[in-house]
Amino acid sequence: MMARVVPHAAxxxxxxxxxxxxxxxGDTILVSGEVREGTLTIDRPMALIGAAGAxxxxxxxxxxxxxxxxxxxxxxxxxxxxxxxxxxxxxxxKVLDRARAHIVDNFLDxxxxxxxxxxxxxxxxxxxxxxxxxxxxxxxxxxxHLWHCHNVRILDNLVRDxxxxxxxxxxxxxxxxxxxxxxxxxYGLHFMFSNRNAYSYNRFQDNxxxxxxxxxxxxxxxxxxxLSNRGASSYGLLLKEINDGVLEDNExxxxxxxxxxxxxxxxxxxxxxFRANGWALRLFANATACVITRNLFVGNTFDLSTNxxxxxxxxxxxxxxxxxxxxxxxxxxxxxxxxxxxxxxxxVERMPYAMVFSRSLLVALLDQAERLIPTLTPLAMKDDHPxxxxxxx
Length: 393
Hints:
This protein is mainly beta. Helix content is 7%, strand content 40%. The chain is elongated, with a radius of gyration of 25 Å.
């Protein structure tokens, strides 16, 4: 039987819940107007398409749209009215243990959780605007939330004013590209126990913290912008207990801490730009076999900081705007090593309140003396071949 296109007017005699029960696999239901029928469940392969101005309002019943079938598309709606709950993760659009869902070009307006995928695979979440109504953290859910999912594409979405903008837990082989995650209370993007994922060409700005990647392995992070993520314990990107990953060609600007590396192994940090951050890079002593090269450090309060003496990483061939060495053989690299960690940076890492002396002339003199004749900073924390000119400049 051929698939049908079934028009549905919200003010008509037949409710949308009945249309969904009567739909044949492969049907398209084209909805106009505003639907207020509590939770809508889609339990067969089909497309639910909104005409211009179409609204689905859950009327605070719980979830708004729940997908329990494979091969379902929901496109073109304003979705609102999910119930705030301390017991249930109610969402604007929820996919439960199904494959190939397409959630496209919707406006999730003030939902507790915006788009929620649980046990899903091969899904696409693209072109949505997911906007929360800022409240206390325990009354806010995540914008786009994935739990135990595989091979999902998160593309071209705007997420703002939620707890976490995008949240992954036990998610594998997923791509996150060209999204904007802004003004979220906690994280712009948050990974937990999620392996073999990649995110690129995204913007994380004005969040409590930009991105946190925790307890995962084989992660790729390229061409992202981490901007103006500021606060007492904020950062553009936190890497915690990450093995075998790459951070390449990203921009870190105007963050309290640009990049924090804690307990990572075999991580490549290459061709990134760190400009006008408080701390550009905080590299903890429990990180090992990391390669840090061809990065740009300009205008940061502290270029580099650490919390211990052990240093088993390769820091080589970066550009540091404070380097005042020379290049007699004209190979493009400084002839004397550069020590980016000064005495004051080490002191502040151990005694944060020492920051009140940051503009002191004595501090500047002590930093210069420590770089020339290091006695307190780790001997291995140096760049033996600092670049004389900016990379690609």
